[in-house]
Write the structure tokens for this entry.
Amino acid sequence: MPTMLTPDALAVDAVWSPEQVAYFQSEIERRKGSVGWYHEVTVTDRAGHSVRTPGIHACLPILAVLERFGFPRDFTGKTVLDIGCNAGFYSSVAKVRGARSVLGIDYFQHSIEQARLLRDILQLDIDFRQGDGEALGEGLGPFDVVINTGVMYHLQNPMQFLSNMARLTTELMFLESEMLVDSRHSEYAWFIEHEYNRDLSNWWIYGPECLGRMVRAAGFSRAEFKGFAWTPARGEKTPEGLDRQGRGVMLCWK
Ligand SMILES: C[S@@+](CC[C@H](N)C(=O)[O-])C[C@H]1O[C@@H](n2cnc3c(N)ncnc32)[C@H](O)[C@@H]1O
């Protein structure tokens, strides 16, 4: 039985020795580095041993939500790029769901080191490389499916990034991002400049209509807004006192 997704964990078809469990746990701790983990995921073996990465992004419950908004349940035979892969959870899902090949790229080397550890624990064949989606060279891809979750608002040059993704995608890009929730602002984008939600790497938050136009202008034929996967409580503020926005999903067809 290959590696599987269960409601609570990724399950590997192996029985780990106590030494392996101790090694995985010490590597998870070591690869925290100074920034910690983002992806929180539990991996179990056939004997019921488990290891857990201690992130703030509850991967499996969030995956269940994204599936309701069109995240593919089947990747059979697809070539997949997971751009901004972080610790590689969505790359792993694509592989477990039958992808022919998966490449995960992230800007930060420490994320790539975490992703490689998760890959090794899961015994999956996935390529993880450090790279910048805003400045990808030639010779990559193309890919049937691109997974682009949680990245758009971190970009200073989103049109350059989207043009790169359009060049690399042959079928579908699954896009999830912080998006403006007020429908009166749907055609606009908000440039943050300073901190948003305690994160200095947040630059742009887009209205759904604005982002759809950007996606088409970059080279996709159709942008289908699937709705908000998460919305803030009425009047909710970020710690900086800014209006908290929602998380929207868009299917971008080539
Ligand atoms: C909020 S995390 C989302 C991670 C993952 N895609 C997910 O949905 O859980 C954003 C990730 O995008 C990466 N990132 C930001 N800008 C990037 C860029 N220009 N090229 C590649 N990765 C980037 C960050 O390093 C980080 O790992």
About this structure: The pocket of S-adenosylmethionine is lined by residues 38, 57, 83-86, 90, 105-108, 111, 132-134, 149-151, 154-155 (CB under 6 Å). Residues 63-253 form a domain with the Rossmann fold fold (CATH 3.40.50.150). The chain has a mean pLDDT of 96. Residues 109-122 form the longest helix (14 residues).
